[in-house]
Design brief:
This protein is α+β, with helices and mostly antiparallel strands and 215 residues long. It is built from nine helices and four strands, in the order βαβββαααααααα.
Length: 215
């Protein structure tokens, strides 16, 4: 099994985390997306990573790949067993893909001015929504998003927070102190062995992303 990925790509990290949590052996092939024309045959039809190669067949898009892994390798389970709870999980993954992620990247790519201010406010609104609608309703002793075990929802969101120093330093957005459940969840995630295996220091991310996002 092979995963084609980019080193700082949060979508790639989703799949790395799922594979490591599933304890599956895989070859990790890293491509430089700045020179992606050299890797066309490895990329998805959209020209993107990650791509999972399993049994000599490619699977595209991080959320699709992770659900495929869940179906092919059901243990340990990363989606709830109950159909309703699975629907809730898919809602949050969709929220990450269609609301949170675009706000995050649109802010990073913005130029100074009123539009950036609006994008900053939008990202903060999404952080508050995660706190109020996603994490606060959990039982007090539940460490992860939907259960006592790690899941695909946790892995959908965490890679953006792994590199969150880029919006903190270059776009002045921090996770507000009052979002206590989000902060608690992040602390729990950072203790996971699978997460620690992909983690880099805050200083590393700041230095790497400076060339892309510093005004």
């Amino acid at each position: 099994m092979k995963l084609i990925a980019a080193e700082y790509c949060p979508f790639s990290l989703r799949c790395v985390l799922a594979l490591r949590e599933k304890r599956k052996r895989f070859e990790l092939v890293t491509v430089d997306m700045a020179e992606k024309t050299q890797f066309g045959e490895l990329l998805s039809p959209y020209g993107r990573v990650p791509v999972l190669e399993h049994k000599e067949r490619p699977i595209y898009e991080s959320s699709v790949i992770n659900e495929y892994l869940e179906e092919v390798f059901p243990e340990p389970a990363l989606l709830p067993e109950d159909p309703y709870d699975r629907a809730v999980a898919r809602f949050w993954i969709d929220f990450c893909n269609t609301r949170f992620m675009p706000a995050y990247f649109n802010l990073l790519k913005s130029t100074p001015g009123k539009k950036r201010d609006a994008l900053r406010a939008e990202l903060l609104e999404h952080l508050t929504f995660i706190e109020d609608q996603g994490l606060s309703p959990r039982p007090a002793d539940q460490p992860f998003w939907l259960s006592n075990g790690i899941g695909l929802v946790d892995f959908a969101f965490y890679p953006f927070f792994e590199r969150f120093a880029d919006v903190e330093v270059f776009r002045n957005v921090k996770v507000p102190d009052q979002l206590t459940q989000l902060r608690k969840w992040l602390k729990t995630m950072r203790c996971l062995p699978s997460v620690q295996s992909i983690s880099r220091s805050r200083a590393h991310y700041i230095e790497y992303f400076r060339k892309f996002y510093a005004d």
